[in-house]
Amino acid sequence: MVEGMERKLEAGEVLFDEGDKGDVMYLIREGKIKITKGQGEDEKVLAILKEGDFFGEMAIIDGSPRSASAIAVTPTSLLVIDKETFKSKLKENPLIEYTLETLTRRLRTTDEQIKLLTIKSEERRIIAYITTKAKETGEQVDEGIKITPFSLENLAQITGIREEKVKDYVKKLEQANLVKIQDDSMIIKGVEDLDDYLRYIALKEKFEKL
Asked: What is the rounded distance in angstroms from the CA atom of residue 208 to the CA atom of residue 158?
């Protein structure tokens, strides 16, 4: 039996937000938790978890930020299991540890692709992927944030866009001095500028329809 601390939530209380760092997982003892993506009008409920369900394990397996938000639907009691306790149990069976880490990588990739494919604009889809990778796995260098490895072929596969079109969009970003291709890497000059450019494209598309 895995031991842990207890945490109680009131209805509507946020346990964690999408993008937060995660170093614990949770088991629901009593109550309900909703797992969501997005905020406000864009919020999408992915699941409603109840007594006996566990969640948050992906973040402590691979160290990535929370892939969704968790909010109490009703007064809820949780068992909190920290990373060290969870990892020590996994190490008792190396095959289970390896299997979970592999499944987590695959789920992260699938989750990332699903999220991207909901963006209708191809240009916004590409920029959203680049900014996400920069924030999650980018390396700080003198010129900005470096993503390695990077290839147009891989970007095309992940975003579901033809490689020729991907090349044109990336070239446009280079001409705007937002990114730079260097061997098998991409350097983002400024993530904030790229975020601003993404918002600019979204507004442009919105008002062009009016």
From this structure: 28
What's the DSSP call for residue 173? H
Tens-place pLDDT, residues 160-174: 889 999 999 999 999
What is the C-alpha separation between 132 and 70, in angstroms, rounded?
20
| CA nearest to 49, candidates 34, 68, 36 | 34
User: Is the pLDDT confidence value at 54 over 80?
Assistant: yes
Q: Are 6 and 78 in contact (CB under 8 A)?
A: yes
Are 9 and 101 in a shared domain?
yes
Among 77, 112, 147, identify where a domain stops. 112
Check whether residue 184 and residue 140 sit in a common domain.
yes
Report the half-sphere exposure of 128 (CA within 13 A, side-chain side): 19
CA-to-CA separations, 73 to 17, 27, 119, 131, in angstroms, rounded: 15, 15, 28, 32
Say how many C-beta atoms besides its own lie within 10 A of residue 127's C-beta.
23
